[in-house]
Amino acid sequence: xxxxxxxxxxxxxxxxxxxxxxxxxFIYFSYRVLFCYMKFFKRLxxxxxxxxxxxxxxxxxxxxxxxxxxPAGLYKNKKPEQxxxxxxxxxxxxxxxxxxxxxxxxxxxxxxxxxxxxxxGLKLEAWWIPSPKAIGTVILFHGYGGCKDGTLAxxxxxxxxxxxxxxxxxxxxxxxxxxxxxxxxxxAEDVKLAYNxxxxxxxxxxxxxxxxxxxxxxxxxxxxxxLQPDKVILExxxxxxxxxxxxxxxxxxxxxxxxxxxxxFWGGVEHGFWGxxxxxxxxxxxxxxxxxxxxxxxxxxxxxxxxxxxxxHLNSKKKQLVVFNESYHQxxxxxxxxKWKTAVKKFLQ
Length: 349
Prior knowledge:
Elements: H1 2-9, H2 17-67, H3 85-94, E1 112-117, E2 123-129, E3 136-141, H4 152-160, E4 163-168, H5 187-200, E5 206-211, H6 213-224, E6 231-235, H7 241-251, H8 259-271, H9 280-283, E7 291-296, H10 304-313, E8 319-324, H11 332-335, H12 337-348
Parallel strand pairs: 3-4, 3-5, 5-6, 6-7, 7-8
Antiparallel strand pairs: 1-2, 2-4
Helix pairs in contact: 2-8, 5-6, 7-8
């Protein structure tokens, strides 16, 4: 301490001894105050650094849990809104525990099981369900934590309208290989594989339908892989990955900022991409074919602002937004069947 005080004193211009004797008590006091403040700010800096590192460790752990599924049946999957206070607290502290989704229902009409292969060697399972005298094919993509049997109701109605249907399990879901999910980023390749398969069967009129993550994957796949579907139907697409994570934070009553930004960063790092750059609303600018956007007015996962942003950015001369006033983030075909079927039939005519 004495050496430090001497080194600081050497920086000042020398003053007469009389003045020094008068000022020395004040100078000494000032030095002591200065050193106390320096010590305080040094400790504060260390504390902030520790908190910053702790925040990143915790969010990296949560990001891993959110995008990695456990073997099917190991845990009972619950949405945040279905959890009680204790279960939400456990999720905040220990991360979410999600089992891989299971296909429990099969089509009640003849179908063919198809296997596709990703560039990384994963096998994807899909169902080809033909329609007599088909006028085209609709490819259906499920949402986060779902699988292809969740889209059977929509597929049934598309067949009533005269379309073949092709239902896919995204990687890490249902009967497809893997236990990881990138919320639509890498799943865009799965969209391309499904599209190419249907094309190879000789189909010239292809329509893409997607729910939530499935819709986001469509928005990314179309411009990235130069797909040319006749039309797209996008239900509950989120605007950005950060927005999707922020919705998860809202559901467990955790502040969206800064947790959603840090979670998005680590989620991307763990899967090899820039999470903040994953923006379906930006990809919408490259969508030039007719588009139908559907949103539930009671949806607390995807906001009206996100929906409007995507709709406004769609570069299509024929686009339509339909709001389902009684629906949450769910299947509109099941919740409001009459309104959904009317909107879809009109859009496809």
